[in-house]
Structure formats: C-alpha cells, structure tokens
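Researcher: Structure prediction, please.
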Amino acid sequence: MTIPDAEQENQLAVELMMEVYNLRNNLTGYYDWLKSRGIDVSNKEKDSTLWHTVILERDNGDCAKQIEKAYLLFGQYRKPS
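Model: Predicted structure follows.
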C-alpha cells in the first residue's frame, strides 16, 4: 500500500495551476493566486516561472508566443518613466 505524499501532491497542484494561468496568458493572476493561499513568491521564482514559459513556447515551435513571453519576462525590468 502506497501512502500519499501530501507535500508532493500540493507541489504538483501548484505547478499545474501555473500551466493553467500560463495558457490563459495571466501569470500575474497566478502570483495573486499563490499569494491568496499564503505562498510567498520571490522575484527569483517569478523569473524562473516566466523563463519556463519562454522555453515552453520555444519547445512548441511557436516563435511569436516565445517572443511574447520573453517581453513579459524582460518587461518587468523596465525602469518606470
């Protein structure tokens, strides 16, 4: 009999929600969702998540989406005008 690993299942659920929000082009909503559940997200983790979406679009062969996701990633570094 295998005992479920709640921590591992929770991590998988969080990763799946990231994919859902990514497919809806709403990663900022994903961070809000995490925050609403008391999960702090560092800037490093946000960068990693955004980079993952760039790679995913590259792997899917969608250059336009890859560029769009890269702008989302690098756009957060723009200095306010």
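Model: The chain has one domain: 6-75.
Researcher: Thanks, that helps.
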